[in-house]
Design brief:
Layout (H helix, E strand, L loop, with lengths): L2 E5 L4 H12 L4 E8 L9 H7 L4 E6 L1 H15 L10 H20 L3 E3 L8 H12 L4 E3 L1 H4 L4 H10 L13 E5 L2 E5 L29 E8 L2 E5 L2 E2 L2 H14 L4 E7 L5 E7 L1 H17 L2 H19 L6 H13 L5 E8 L2 E8 L7 H4 L11 H9 L1 H11 L3 H8 L6
Parallel strand pairs: 1-2, 1-4, 2-3, 4-5
Antiparallel strand pairs: 6-7, 7-12, 8-9, 8-13, 9-10, 11-12, 13-14
Helix pairs in contact: 1-7, 3-4, 4-5, 8-9, 10-11
Bound molecules: arginine.
The site of arginine has 10 residues, from helix 4 and strand 6.
């Protein structure tokens, strides 16, 4: 029988997929579980996969690679989709596509599969990634091809001798990894409904967060977080710690109506304490270490970067070009940011960098001023030259009109 590698979460959809792919499609299924952190099914993936008839279950701990090569570069770029979504799911998909293809090669498989529906972004990210990395692999998407209702899936498995206690269906559709959690569907489908407290799992209600603030010191080297509270820490430890402490203070809740690539608007609840804190701190460090032109262009690039991640174009030349620009901007983004966590907010309250462009001598209104105020007169003379010329040559008669637009109550 031909071999197929299935991206396997251990949930009902992909467990049903193992059986369906073997029975209806005639594949030998290798279930590949990619651990990007936070999966509640992690302890049971192996037993469930085997019970459902997988040839074997392979588990790859990809948490560190996920943060180092996917989430942190997006952080350095300032990539946040539609100013709200730190892209947790979107960043994990290309990593999963890559590992599916690698394992397919190792195992001599001719096909790969994932559990995405036909309505979302994830199918695009998987398919485009896989097709880019190895166009010879066939892609099967059981849920997209043959959506089965939950009861029917459980019944289908039972009929094939797979008896797993599935428990109650949760009220939402959830996806989680270390960079963030998303909840959609159920009562959240009405954008007018306030998310019920069960929609959140990583973060406390603001009112129930501690009344005393907590301070963090986060250090970055060339745009990458490397230390917390002066202690060297790996990416996994940093993000775990920030998720915990941020969640405790109710930081990182996002309620967003988002535009999917496939044209649907969808209401999403995200929790991303570490992502929200690290983005805020990183932006603050850039205010010290980048010039105003760099900050301005980088903002534009951040939008483009977020969209290419969201839209499944990770393995593209366009990404390579943008990543090279971003990496270049990060050469001097090294320093420390102090963040205050309190009642749902992460506020930057201090920042420092050895190669800071901030010059106290230039900025100060106190003694020790090194700025030559008399030079401002000549500067303004040149800066306003063209505007003055235009006013004299073209706008003279029109200036009172312009004034009316600015202050209509001052007519005549
Ligand atoms: N809307 C987010 C995205 O497109 C989250 C998707 C969550 N995925 C899921 N299969 N539930 O990245």
């Amino acid at each position: 029988m031909p071999k197929l590698i299935l991206a396997y979460s251990g949930g009902l959809d992909t467990t049903t997929a193992i059986k369906w792919l073997s029975v209806e499609q005639g594949y030998d299924v290798v279930a590949l579980n990619i651990d990007v952190g936070k999966s509640r099914e992690q302890p049971v993936v192996e037993s469930r996969g085997i019970a459902a008839g997988a040839l074997k279950v392979r588990v790859i701990d990809a948490r560190e690679d996920f943060l180092r090569y996917f989430a942190f570069p997006a952080l350095a770029a300032g990539a946040v989709y539609q100013d709200q979504y730190p892209l947790a799911t979107a960043l994990a998909r290309p990593l999963m596509a890559k590992l599916l293809v690698d394992v397919a090669h190792e195992e001599g498989a001719t096909a790969v599969a994932h559990g995405c529906t036909g309505k979302g972004n994830d199918q695009v990210r998987f398919d485009v990634g896989i097709q880019t990395l190895d166009p010879s692999l066939s892609i099967v998407a059981p849920t997209r091809e043959n959506a089965m209702a939950r009861d029917y899936q459980i019944e289908y498995l039972r009929q094939h001798g797979v008896d797993i206690p599935w428990g109650e269906k949760g009220p939402f559709s959830i996806d989680e990894n270390m960079w963030g959690r998303s909840a959609e569907a159920g009562v959240l489908e009405d954008p007018w409904n306030e998310p019920p407290r069960e929609a959140y799992e990583w973060t406390r209600e603001t009112e129930e967060a501690p009344s005393t603030p907590e301070y963090l010191e986060i250090e970055y080297e060339s745009g990458m977080p490397v230390r917390l509270g002066g202690q060297d820490m790996g990416p996994v430890a940093i993000v775990e710690r920030l998720n915990d402490v941020g969640g405790l203070h109710g930081v990182g809740r996002i309620d967003h109506v988002e535009d999917r690539l496939v044209g649907i608007k969808s209401r999403e609840i995200y929790e991303a304490p570490a992502g929200v804190i690290l983005h805020a701190a990183h932006r603050a460090l850039e205010t010290l270490t980048l010039s105003k032109q760099q900050i301005k262009l980088k903002k534009v690039i951040a939008i483009e970067y977020a969209e290419l991640i969201y839209n499944g174009l990770w393995f593209s030349a366009h990404h390579q070009d943008i990543a090279a620009y971003v990496a270049s901007t990060q050469r001097h983004v090294t320093g420390t940011v102090r963040v205050k966590l309190h009642r749902g907010k992460a506020t930057v309250v201090g920042r420092k960098a050895v190669q800071s462009l901030y010059d106290r001598g230039l900025a100060t209104y106190d003694r020790g001023d090194t700025y030559d105020q008399s030079a401002a007169v000549g500067f303004i003379n040149i800066w306003g030259l063209q505007t003055r010329t235009q006013a004299r040559v073209q706008l003279l008669g029109e200036l009172p009109e312009a004034l009316k637009i600015a202050m209509p109550h001052q007519q005549d």
